[in-house]
Amino acid sequence: MIWPPDNIRILHVDDDPNFLDVAAELLKRENERFTVEIVTNPEEGLAMVSDRPPDCIISDYDMPNMNGVEFLKRVRENRPKLPFILFTSKRRDTVASDAISAGVTDYLQKGTESSRYTLLTNRVMNAVKRYECDRRRKRWRQAIDAAVDTVGIVSADGQYVQLNDAYASVFDTSKADLTGTSWWNWYPDEQVQQFEEEIFPALQEEGTWRGQVVGQRTDGTQFDQVLSLSSLKGGGHMFVVEEYETGVVD
Question: 182-190 — which CB contacts under 8 Å span 24+ positions?
Fold first, then answer.
């Protein structure tokens, strides 16, 4: 999903059809990106979530047969992170504990003033954005773990924040031991100096860099590696070791 997306699908569940019609209109007026689907029965809502999950659920609490927290628990059985906002006339202290335990994303009391829907719109947007960011990070981690190449991600402050087993094995260590360490701990001093004086300036100008460098394993032995670097948005770099020597550099 490109943020913000052109269309954000909201499932609004409330047993009052008149309220749903008004709320849907006000939400779409607040944000033209919203598509609001309305249902008066939580069971129907569950079927819709199963068939085609929305980007966010807004639900009342007081509903016959299944209240909002019970509905939330059913949703969480298969969608543990899907944004779910309780929008109800119930006071927060009445249902907050149960809702939080069930994994509610947010809670907002109903109101008749238009500012209430401005606030609800902001809550929806924030919840959907957090959810999408979490999904991207999960897909990114899965892609790195599954990659055949040796891939390491370094944050703007120089620490390894994500890597796969293949990358860790290059340095004769494990993912757990390498994660959180600084990249310069894995290169000899003279190589670090070349990174800072030559390689990173070229990387900043071009966005990518490829060449031969000397790495350093946990036991202090040094080895040649062909390294590709790419700059990442927001700072940080991707390290990809394309080839490396298993022996020791003389």
Answer: 182/158, 183/152, 183/154, 183/158, 183/159, 183/239, 184/158, 186/215, 186/216, 186/217, 187/213, 187/214, 187/215, 187/216, 188/214, 188/216, 188/222, 190/214
